[in-house]
Each structure stands twice: as structure tokens, then as C-alpha cells.
Design goal:
Protein name: HTH marR-type domain-containing protein
Mean pLDDT: 89
Strand order of the largest sheet: 1-3-2
Keywords: DNA-binding, Transcription, Transcription regulation
Number of helices: 6
Pfam families: MarR_2 (PF12802)
Distance between the termini: 26 Å
GO molecular function: DNA binding; DNA-binding transcription factor activity
Structural class: mainly alpha
Helix content: 55-70%
């Protein structure tokens, strides 16, 4: 077991499955949600594929697919164990910050596409106005998220110290 403190496996499993269900309800795929919740509930925030498979009772292929998704969304990182070919998967304290910050690139691409849509359809058409409003929303969100993330950094440092 990777945790320094021994916990009741049933209680941990209940939390993992419950939190994963909340993530699924919010739109995350089921297996990545379960893997993320398991990593989050682990004291050191790090597990191997074998440990994840044993805890969640899932196949190595399911772990691999889930970790690939989570790594692409910047919610976990892969680390090579020193002197070994095994990888450990780690969730960090700032995973939500990283995941949200990395969404900015997606929002920028949407903004470019929406600008092209407004230009193509004409700003004075109903569809063009609808796209312009959507573009304005994403531009607003982008500014607000950047300001919110800066406030979060200050707040986090007050609560938890320097990362």
C-alpha cells in the first residue's frame, strides 16, 4: 500500500467511487474519474499502474487509457521510478490550477474560430450576432479566469505556504 497511514479499504473505496461519480456527472469519463479520485485519496498522491489496477480492480489497459486522458488534461503527471522502468502516476496539489490554466489555449482557439465565423457569416446576421456574443463571452471568461487564478495563487499561499 502506498499510503503511510493504514486506512479502511472499504472507506477509501467508498470515497473514490463517490467522488468519481461526481466527476462523471460533471462530464469526465468514468475510468479517468476513478483513477484521479484514487490518486487524490492516496497520501503521497502517487501510485503505479499495478497499484491503481489492484485498488480499483481494473485492467492495465484501463489504467493506461485513463492515465493518458488525465495526462493530456494536465490532471496527473507520469514519473519514472529511479532505477526502474516502472512509471508512477502523480496528482499534484495544483492540478486544478494547471487543468484550468491549460484550458486557456483551447479557449483561444475557440475565439479564433468564432472570429472567423463572425467574419464569414456577417456580424449583422442573426447567426453572426450569436457567434459574436459567444466570442464576447469567451473573451470575458478568459480575462476573469486569469484574474481569478492570480487571486487563487495569493490565497493558496496564505493557506498552504509556498508550493
Amino acid at each position: 500500500m502506498t499510503d503511510a497511514v493504514q486506512r479502511d479499504p472499504e472507506t477509501v473505496s467508498k470515497f473514490v467511487e463517490g467522488f468519481a461519480a461526481q466527476l462523471v456527472e460533471a462530464g469526465m469519463q468514468r475510468m479517468p474519474a476513478r483513477v484521479f479520485a484514487a490518486l487524490l485519496s492516496c497520501d503521497n498522491g502517487s501510485m503505479t499502474s499495478v497499484e491503481l489496477g489492484e485498488q480499483l480492480r481494473i485492467s492495465p489497459a484501463a489504467v493506461s487509457g485513463a492515465v493518458r486522458y488525465l495526462a493530456q488534461t494536465h490532471m496527473v503527471s507520469r514519473e519514472r521510478e529511479p532505477g526502474s522502468r516502472r512509471e508512477r502516476y502523480r496528482v499534484h496539489g495544483d492540478q486544478w490550477y494547471e487543468a484550468l490554466t491549460n484550458r486557456e489555449a483551447v479557449i483561444k482557439r475557440w475565439e479564433v474560430a468564432l472570429r472567423e465565423g463572425v467574419d464569414s457569416l456577417g456580424a449583422d446576421t442573426p447567426a453572426g450576432r450569436r457567434m459574436a456574443e459567444t466570442l464576447a463571452f469567451f473573451e470575458f471568461v478568459e480575462v476573469e479566469v486569469a484574474a481569478m487564478m492570480e487571486r487563487w495563487r495569493v490565497h493558496r499561499e496564505k493557506l498552504f505556504g509556498t508550493p
